[in-house]
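Board notes (copied after class):
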Amino acid sequence: MMYYVYILQSELDKEFYVGMTGNIERRFSEHLRGNVESTKHRLPMKLLCYEAYNTKEETARREEYLKSSDGRKDIKKRIIESMIK
């Protein structure tokens, strides 16, 4: 089984949301339907990117990093770089 870390961005307030899941399609659908408490007030959301990992532990480590201040800086840097390309 694969595990995923994903980054969403609210089109309402432009803020990011980082999460992890074992089923990226199902989880993103839950976000879009407003079934996730932490994002339902920030809809619509768009999926910016996701990363796949082999273990839940390495996925959780990556999610924790992306939620840190350094991780947030990396996310913003990647977004800016992708806009320039």
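Comment from the instructor: The longest strand covers residues 45-53. The chain has one domain: 3-84.
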